[in-house]
Each structure stands twice: as C-alpha cells, then as structure tokens.
Design a protein that fits this description.
Distance between the termini: 66 Å
CATH topology of the largest domain: Tetracycline Repressor, domain 2
Order of helices and strands: HHHHHHHHHHHEHEEHEHEEHHHHHHHH
Largest sheet: 3 strands, mixed
Structural class: mainly alpha
Mean pLDDT: 86
Number of helices: 22
CATH superfamily of the largest domain: SLC41 divalent cation transporters, integral membrane domain
Helix content: 55-70%
Strand order of the largest sheet: 1-2-3
Shape: elongated
Number of domains: 3
Strand content: 5-15%
Number of strands: 6
Low-confidence stretches: none
Length: about 475
C-alpha cells in the first residue's frame, strides 16, 4: 500500500512539474489562476523544488506575491534563501510582507547568516510596521516561545458588545488561518484577560457583552519558555492556538499548532542526530548541502571516539605487559574484549536513549531522578544476569576452564550493570546542569564504557587469578 502511495505521489509531482514548466515558459495569467485554484500550495512547492533555480525565480517573478507567498512558505527554508537572495530587493520585500511574521523572521535569521548585505537591503525596503514586527521576533532567544510565535493574532477589548467586537475584528482584517478563529480579550493596556471564539460571537446576540462569553483562564506561555515546554503544553491540553505573554501579562503573540509540529519534528531530528554523534546542523545541509557542513558536523564526536580508543589501547598495553598467568592465555583473555565492550555499549546506549527521550517528552519527572536511575540499574543487572549465565554455559561447553568462564561472566554482569547506570545517569546529570542531555550520545557513552569496561574486565581477571593462586 505504501509503495502504491509513493508511486501516486511521484506521479502527481511529475505531472505538476510538467505543468509548471509549461506555465513558466509561456503560461497566461488565466492559466496561472486556474492552476492555483486546482492544486494545493504544498504540492506546488514540492514540484517547484525539483525545477532549476532559473525556473523557480521566473515563477515567483511572474505570480503576484499575494498568490505566490503561500507556495514560498511551503518550501524548505534552504530553498527559500537562494530564491529571496536572487530576485530583486523590492519584489523580495513584497513577498516577505505577505508572509506570516514568524515565517518571515525564520527566513531573515537564516538570510542574515548567508548574505547579511542582502538581508539588510530587504529589511530596509519593508514597510516600517512589518520590519518592526520581524525585528522584535528576531530579538527573542532561539528555541523560546517568542522565537516561534507570530505577532499576527485577533484581539478585542473586554468592554465591547458583540456587534462592536465584530466590527473591531473586521477592522483588523484577520488572515485566512486558524489564527482568526480564536479571539483574545484584553484590558485597556492589552493585558490578557481571557478568550472567546468566532463561533461564540456569531452565535450570540449583537447586544450581548463580550465579558459574558469570555473564558477567564486561558492556557498561556511566557515569551522565554522553551519551545519543547510549549509543545508539551499543546499536547497536554489538545490546543490549536496558545497565547504568549510577557511577565506583565501583556499579550505579545500566539503560537499555532503548525508551528508546534515543526518544533516537534525539529527537536526529534536534533536529538536523533546528537544521539548518533552528529552536531546540530540543518537536516537538508546534512543530506544535500556542501560536504564541509557534514564533515564539520560529524568530525568532533569522532575525535572524541579516537581519544577514547587511545586510552583504551593503553589500558590493554599496560595489562598485557603485566599479565603472566600460565593457565589462561593472554590471547584468550583479549579475544573476549569485543564481546564485553559491545554488550556494555549497547545497554548503555539503550538506557541513554530512553532517558533522553523521557526528558524530551516530559514523561520523566525531574523530581524523582534516582527512581529512574535505580530502575535502569535493576534492568541492566537483570539482563546482565541472564546474558552472563548464557555466556557461562557457552564458554564451559566450548572447553574453557571454569575459572575463565566465571571471570568472563562476572565481568559481563558488572559491565552491563555499570553501563546501565552510566547510560541513565549521564542524561539526567547533564539536564540538571542545563546541558542538552542528548549530548550524552552514542560516541560519548561508547568511549566511556570502553575504558570503564576494560578496567572492570582486566581487574576482575587479575583478582580471580590472584584469589585462586
């Protein structure tokens, strides 16, 4: 079924691509109008991204910004930047004026990094009000509610009748989106007092007072709240829109559910890459950007792995020099190192991933960290006990001595228990120190456990041999 859907989607995109090329190279205004009526902006954006840069620029130069902006907003940010950079400044300013303020702020943030001169020229060409809104959104800390909110929302004073409220809303010319459905009610100083809905207003008598239909306790967030916290609030209360206020309760913006979906996807992607030992970088840059981006992103953790490997190799070297037992050969002892380190690393990474995900989703309550650590410790010990027993049966059945079988099995049990402890504790410790817990990633855990695991294994070997002799 999924393959059929993929083929149908590809066929649709190819069909739209063909139509777009015909429009770009000779389409009439009427044909463009029919095209926009028939196809969704997201599908047009998908097809447009497969065309050449020249064709994309011609498309946005021909269509009006009022129509073309919906397609532009559906495109990936990495696709928007070169388009806005190449078209004339005046036209770019018109497109950005039509964009949602939060989307425009995201575009500018990236454009300032790529081409500061062009970004400044476009900002100067914007109407003063739009430029001020975007500058304000850019001033909020990245990853905060303020950075993902839009300053475009519908509000009314609390001392109006329904008729006066509807007139006030019409004067604001609300956009065609979920923003227009929720009506936020403020006092004379624009402090949030409550909210109502467009439906409530339309179903009420024109002479009714807005105060009588006001919900007085709206769920809200502050501008500096972390975007992950905002996403959890949306999930908890099943919201479509949430107001954003400052510490004086002034209504400064709203966050919509489509912004939260982007946050959830971005945060999950970011954590996934960090857990795999890749520094934070745009997904598009990793997959199709310049090679230098991927190299810079992936190299740091690999360097850490090299350092961990060097320390581990010195441990093996020192142990080999001082090992002189005749009953158990050094070759046999070292041959089990990959097995023990691999199992320890795997269970450590499992515990780490569970903890990082629990912290990200809010399911892991920070007030009881020891509870979760002890739980993972018990799980690690239990799994280690089972695997150690199986390994003991294997080594004995393949002709190894009981002494060596005990050494390997006890070492494995200890390593897996310690690995679960380290894997579960590190993300919680990092989180307490206000460090992203995803930094406790696979390379970090693996390197640590390689060193700790070898120390445990070699110490156990020497201890049991000395105990017997």
């Amino acid at each position: 079924m999924s393959h059929d859907l993929d083929r149908a989607k590809k066929h649709r995109t190819d069909h739209l691509k063909d139509l777009l090329q015909r429009l770009i190279h000779g389409g009439s205004e009427k044909q463009y109008h029919y095209f926009f009526q028939r196809y969704h902006e997201a599908d047009i954006a998908d097809a447009l991204e497969t065309l050449s840069d020249e064709d994309k620029q011609q498309f946005f130069q021909y269509v009006s910004p009022q129509k073309g902006v919906d397609v532009l907003e559906e495109m990936e940010l990495e696709q928007q930047i070169p388009l806005i950079s190449e078209i004339k400044t005046e036209l770019a300013a018109k497109y950005i004026t039509e964009m949602e303020p939060d989307d425009a702020a995201d575009l500018f943030e990236e454009l300032y990094e790529e081409d500061e001169k062009k970004a400044t020229e476009i900002m100067d060409a914007l109407p003063k009000e739009e430029a001020a809104d975007i500058q304000e959104l850019l001033s909020y800390e990245e990853g905060s509610a303020g950075s993902i909110m839009t300053s475009e929302f519908v509000w009314i004073p609390e001392d109006l009748t329904v008729k006066e409220a509807l007139d006030h809303i019409k004067a604001q010319n609300p956009p065609e989106s979920e923003v227009a459905f929720y009506i936020f009610i403020t006092d004379e100083n624009k402090r949030l007092r409550g909210y109502t809905t467009l439906r409530n207003l339309l179903m009420s008598q024109l002479t009714d007072d807005v105060q009588d239909m006001r919900h007085d306790y709206p769920i809200k967030v502050y501008v500096e709240d972390d975007q992950e916290s905002v996403a959890r609030t949306f999930q908890k209360y099943d919201l479509a829109v949430i107001p954003v206020i400052d510490h004086e309760s002034h209504l400064v913006g709203i966050v919509t559910v489509d912004d939260v979906v982007d946050v959830v996807v971005d945060e999950a992607t970011e954590d996934l890459y960090k857990l795999s030992g890749t520094s934070e970088i745009g997904e598009s840059k990793l997959l199709s950007g310049r090679l230098i981006y991927s190299i810079q992103s992936r190299l740091p953790w690999l360097v850490l792995t090299i350092l961990g490997g060097i320390v581990a190799s010195y441990i093996i070297k020192i142990y080999s020099v001082h090992y002189h037992d005749q009953n158990i050969s050094l070759v046999l002892v070292l041959s089990f190192v990959p097995l023990l380190m691999g199992l320890g690393g795997n269970i450590g990474n499992q515990s780490s991933t569970i903890m990082v995900r629990g912290l990200a989703t809010g399911l892991l309550k920070e007030r009881y960290p020891l509870t979760y650590i002890m739980r993972e410790l018990c799980i690690g010990f239990s799994i280690g006990l089972i695997v150690a027993f199986l390994l003991f049966i294997f080594t004995v059945s393949t002709g190894h001595s009981y002494l060596f079988s005990i050494i390997v099995s006890v070492s494995l049990l200890t390593i897996m228990t310690v690995a679960a402890l380290i894997g579960s504790a590190l993300p919680i410790i990092f989180n307490k120190l206000n460090i992203d817990p995803a930094v406790a990633s696979a390379p970090f855990i693996s390197s640590t456990l390689d060193i700790v695991g070898q120390l445990i294994y070699f110490s156990m070997t020497i201890y049991f041999i000395l105990l017997i002799t």
